[in-house]
Amino acid sequence: MSYKIPESVLVVIYTPDLQVLLLERADRPGFWQSVTGSLDTLDEPLALTAAREVAEETGIIAGEHQLTDWGHAIQYDIYPQWRHRYAEGVTRNTEHWFGLRVADALPVTLAPREHLQYKWLRWQQAAQQCFSSSNADAIRQLAWRAAGAGAPGVTAATGSDAGRHAAVGGQP
């Protein structure tokens, strides 16, 4: 049996006015989330994992937009109902956060085995709707990250880690 690698990406897809894309999980109706997915191989670059997962789950081609590695990773306990996907004894996952800025709230082509539906919400509503607290935290970080990039109607938070992330594809 092939097991999942306990290292993954979370990609917050958003518009310039901070609408955020959420997807409803097919295996857990009512659970809304951003794009997520594990590395396919131990040496797969994180940006490639992020772009692949975005394409697989939404049909959006990351290279046509602005994919940014936020330079932030968290570790969390894998939910017990999903531990069978990992090698015996693996209980924690490392998740790397990315943002994907798209020009507009695009139509999405869902992978029906993974997701039931999608919606675009203002970032505050999206953070409240996520079932995962870490996903909600990533969406809340979007507001201050975007403020540093001059997004309309967003107040910049003090401090910035703008030098820690690099754009992949699209315009910097």
From TrEMBL:
One of its GO terms (molecular function) is dATP diphosphatase activity. Substrate binds at K4, R25, T36, S132. Mg(2+) binds at E53, E57, E114. It holds the Pfam family NUDIX. Residues 4-143 form the Nudix hydrolase domain. Keywords: Hydrolase, Magnesium, Metal-binding. The keyword Transport does not apply. InterPro entries: DHNTPase (IPR003564), NUDIX_hydrolase-like_dom_sf (IPR015797), NUDIX_hydrolase_dom (IPR000086). It comes from the Bacteria. Its EC number is 3.6.1.-. The keyword Nucleus does not apply. Binds 1 Mg(2+) ion per subunit. Its cofactor is Mg(2+). GO terms for biological process: folic acid biosynthetic process. NCBIfam families: PRK09438.1. This is dATP pyrophosphohydrolase. It comes from Cupriavidus taiwanensis. The lineage of its organism: Bacteria, Pseudomonadati, Pseudomonadota, Betaproteobacteria, Burkholderiales.
